[in-house]
Amino acid sequence: MTLLSDLRKLRQDMVAMERQEARTLASIAAPFGLSARNLLHFIAFHRTNHPGLLSALRERGLSSFEGCDGHLAASLGAVIHVLEQLERQPPLANPEPEGPSHLHSLELLTHHSQALFGSCAQSGARVIMVTLPAEAAHHPTLIHELVEAGMGIARINCAHDGPEIWGRCIEKVRLANQATGCCCRVAMDLAGPKMRTGPLPQESGVVDARPRRDRYGRLISPARLWASPVKPLHGSEGRRALSEGETLLPIGEEGWGTLEPGHRLRGRDASGRFRELQVMDIGPMGIRMRCTQRCRFTAGLRFVQEGGEGSIEIAELPPMAGERVVHVGERLRLTASITDALDAIPCSCPEVFSSLRVGEPVVFDEGRIRAVIEHVAPEQVVLLITHAPARGARLRSDKGINLPGSAVSLPALTPKDLQDLEFAAHHADILNFSYVHEEADIEALHHLLATRGRPQIGLVLKIETHRAFLNLPRLLLTAMRHTSPLGVMIARGDLAVECGWEALAQIQEEMLHLCASAHVPCIWATQVLDSMVRHGTPTRAEITDAAMGARAEALMLNKGPNITATVQTLRTITACMETHLPEHGRHQDQWLSCLAFTPM
Q1: How far apart are CA 444 and CA 84, in angstroms?
Q2: Prediction pTM value
Q3: Fewest beta carbons within 10 Å, which of 147, 439, 551, 555?
């Protein structure tokens, strides 16, 4: 077959796809009519492999259809017309697929982006979504600073906190919009049936005092302790009383009154080793001490003065969250109820146990721990740990559990989601729909929103599982039956765990192309500039990742201590990339700084 006949066959496939999906197209809402057709054209074009086709087009100096996802029928028709002229072939009297032109496809994507994200998506600008911490509800200026820095969407995760905190954050966003003249929208995540490790029994509290040492183990500065029996020191007043670098140590009220500076106290710490504490200063509120060795204090430990009567006894310490330490080769039981057993950990969704099979993988904490199922029972699942750090891994409560090889089916809307929806439907501008898998999930949510008077609220489909990824075209076509604004979030963290890290690059590329073909705005999420958010400085890989993420219409940042500066940095990166993105047609006339050299 010739190149021209191959392309004509592709055009016939597009027309055939339209006919096959005539009922689907008839149900699409008017704002998405052309977008749904182009999505079907994209599927028809890519459902079969075309070896050598793109290379043959390039060799003839013709479009290889890269960057044409949003207007495939028009681009294909143009290339066919050119080939017919070159080969002196008359055009065939076959029906042509109806689709948008290049310019119209850009207008559709811009229109859909502005409908979902608001005015901050004007002129093709990338929108920055920021996950708000609970502290933002009480911080006097944080949200205002984020809006000024460039936050276009404030994200609230309904898996944490509650309506009181959510309401305060939303109120601050609205006030910041009024004060700055910006248009930052509020998105609320419905948590969905996320499987997590359940609550573990709390463990006794511990205070860990560590001296500073150099790389050779030589002492740089001792650990400094502020030991006091005064109860307010357990709270914020006590933290304000501490000097910089001091560790708070609650002690009993007896025995320390006779101590003086220079006295030494000896006793065993929580590890059973003898430790020595030196008294540096005495005051009415307590004692300042130093220790040149690492010392772990737990309630009830007693340290006695050498050659004297003075002593201190460690008072009750706040309990700590429980944990299980696992190693490769060990067995761990997922249980339906809370247990004190050291080889067990509860599961937040034990109803999935009946769907699991021996040999299937189980992944904990975003891939840090991996296991395989050895035995399944109604009340527990026995796992063999196959991957963990060499020294073992600490598994705590509320850590994610993924079942990438299991045929588990849970409703996308949990009882908690239905409760949270009562608040979100009336206060949010956008709903992020977690763990959506089937068309019925979308219809169920739209029905609930209609009964609550918010049928036009923006809807973002969070694609977090391999099953949702494979079903994304049908999910989009189902959502397009409604006129409410629509978007897609590439939840790369869960996708990497579900599909494997090696497959993530291909998956996120396919999702970007698929959303472009449907003219649906896409959100690039998970660990964007994560090191900068947490530590203040990004890695080179994160800068590249953020630049690649600028191909999406929005990027999401997680909460952290340096979030405002990170928003500013991401805004700069995306602004620089906007002029280099081919889908905006700006790369052709763009002046390249790398060509600014002086001839010799």
Answers
A1: 49
A2: 0.85
A3: 439
